[in-house]
Amino acid sequence: GYHIAYRISWISSFLSDRKIQLTFDNETSQEVPIQIGIPQGSPISPILFLIYIRYLFEFDEELDEEEKAQLSQVRYLSYIDDIALVASSKSLEANCRLLEKAASKLFQKGLDSLIQFDQEKIELIHFHARRSLNLDQYQIRLGDYLIKPQK
Question: Domain locations in the chain?
Answer without folding.
Answer: 2-147
